[in-house]
Amino acid sequence: MTLLQLFFTFFLIGLFTIGGGQVAITIMQQYLVDTGIIDSAEFFSMVAVSESTPGPIGINMATYVGCKLYGVFGGVVITFGTVLPSLIVIMLIAGYYEKIQKNNLVQSAFSALRPGVTGLVAVAAWQIIALAVVNVQGFTNSGSFSELFDLKTLAAYLVFTALLLFTKVNPILVIAAGGVFGLVFL
Asked: Where exactly are the transmembrane stretches of this chain (predicted)?
């Protein structure tokens, strides 16, 4: 795939992504992994790095893919391809915002999009959790819990989730701890 083809692919991803970066990641996965451009393990490593770096995850992911495939210039081009649709739409809407803000058709469209976007975000979250915690390669038909789940990763997931949900620990510290855990124990 040429850089120009990848630019237009990410332009379309940016154009049709409604719901944020997690939705963009689901679409990127379907395109990049299913077409064989990168494998699923490499893709989810990219997701992990993109989630742990500052900034919007969809943009981080686009930059990472571009850099991985075409170097720094590719990262810049693919990132631009991802954000260009949003810039165009924002520029078009800005002039008409007052008129369309209270339009019933526009409000109905946004109401109809919410459940679909929620589903796409849930699918993306599940895929990340399943790849990180479920041990698909080591699973046999015995149905053993310890074969199905990577117990260290599952324990870390539960601890870090509990820290985020039930304490006031800064999420940045939890992300850093997760990175250290991955480097030391995995």
From this structure: 70-97, 117-134, 154-185
In this structure, what DSSP letter does residue 83 have? Answer: H
Torsion region of 54: left, alpha or beta (phi above 0 gives left; psi -120 to 50 gives alpha): beta
CA angle 48, 49, 53 (to 5 degrees): 120
Burial class (CB in 10 A: 0-12, 13-18, 19+), 62: buried
Angle between helices 40-52 and 57-94 (to 10 degrees): 70
Mean of pLDDT values over 142-157: 73
Tens of pLDDT, residue by residue over 23-36, are: 788 888 888 888 88
pTM over 0.70, yes/no: no
Q: Under DSSP, is residue 20 helix (H, G, I), strand (E, B) or coil?
A: coil
Helices (H), 40-170: 40-52, 57-94, 97-100, 104-133, 145-148, 151-166
What are the Cα distances from residue 179, in Å, to 45, 67, 103? 12, 22, 46
- Residues 88-96, mean pLDDT to the nearest whole number: 84
